[in-house]
User: Which sequence fits this backbone?
């Protein structure tokens, strides 16, 4: 490819992105950041650059991040056991202390990366401004400690940050009525925040390419689904593992007013830009009734 052809190709990419920028400019986008994209330094830079670009072209991104792998590492370093019940971490008081410290460390690291790119960001937890208010979550009736189920999102602080041109970066720690700290599933937190904030888009960065009709056949990736199609797919029994609650979160978010929910492979560099700004996209989009399928 000649140098001129190379520049023309770049120009075509920008032109392809233009209608998407026009359509969603000024809209709130929630990005749930987790998986391998959090532990690989190059992927970290890729995700943060994507979020920075979304901000600079006029979108209003909110980042909600997890940190399960890092929490497990530090729990083990402290000589404590890591136990899960039905996929949920059993969180006693010492584990909760470690989780909060680890998540806040990750949080401030992401803020620093954003600031280095010239994008103002503020790191908060769901405790700040009582943003995430929770009840104790039980796992099939079993007490699993300081694990919270969101009952209300107070949007005041997030809205103030957006209105003052900051990118909020939130870690999923909430408070109950007695102001005790609770660990929250980051997917649940992102879904609740996107719904409460009236986000146009919610993107889950995962370690898979998207939703497959046949999990054993990589050629069966579903590029887009309506809510009725997603609900029927859940009933089919072809969804398993961690994808089942994630897909249910997508459906719940759409029903709560989010226009599009994206399941993306966070291991692909610039996956957010490829999904948001190209005609083909790269993951699976769950779309609302009023949304176009492309």
Assistant:
């Amino acid at each position: 490819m000649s140098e001129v052809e190379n520049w023309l190709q770049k120009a075509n990419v920008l032109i392809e992105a233009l209608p998407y920028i026009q359509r969603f400019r000024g809209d709130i986008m929630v990005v749930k950041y987790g998986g391998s994209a959090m532990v690989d330094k190059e992927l970290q830079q890729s995700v943060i650059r994507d979020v920075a670009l979304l901000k600079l072209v006029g979108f209003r991104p909110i980042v909600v991040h997890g940190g399960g792998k890092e929490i497990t590492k530090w729990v083990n370093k402290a000589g404590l056991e890591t136990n899960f019940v039905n996929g949920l971490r059993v969180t006693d008081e010492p584990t909760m202390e470690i989780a909060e410290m680890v998540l806040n460390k990750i949080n401030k690291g992401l803020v620093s990366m954003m600031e280095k790119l010239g994008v103002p960001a503020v790191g908060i937890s769901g405790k700040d401004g009582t943003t995430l208010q929770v009840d104790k979550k039980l796992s099939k009736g079993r007490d699993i400690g300081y694990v919270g189920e969101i009952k209300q999102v107070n949007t005041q602080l997030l809205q103030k940050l957006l209105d003052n041109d900051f990118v909020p970066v939130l870690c999923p720690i909430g408070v109950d009525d007695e102001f005790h700290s609770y660990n929250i599933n980051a997917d649940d937190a992102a879904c609740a925040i996107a719904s409460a904030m009236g986000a146009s888009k919610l993107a889950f960065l995962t370690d898979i390419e998207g939703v497959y009709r046949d999990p054993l056949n990589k050629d069966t990736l579903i590029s887009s689904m309506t809510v009725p199609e997603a609900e029927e797919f859940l009933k089919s029994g072809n969804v398993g593992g961690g994808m089942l609650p994630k897909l249910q979160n997508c459906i719940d978010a759409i029903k709560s007013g989010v226009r599009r929910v994206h399941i993306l492979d966070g291991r692909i560099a610039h996956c957010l830009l490829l999904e948001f700004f190209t005609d083909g996209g790269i993951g699976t989009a769950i779309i609302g009734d009023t949304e176009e399928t492309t």
Summary: The first helix runs from residue 3 to 24. The chain has a mean pLDDT of 88. The CA atoms of residues 169 and 266 lie 17 Å apart.
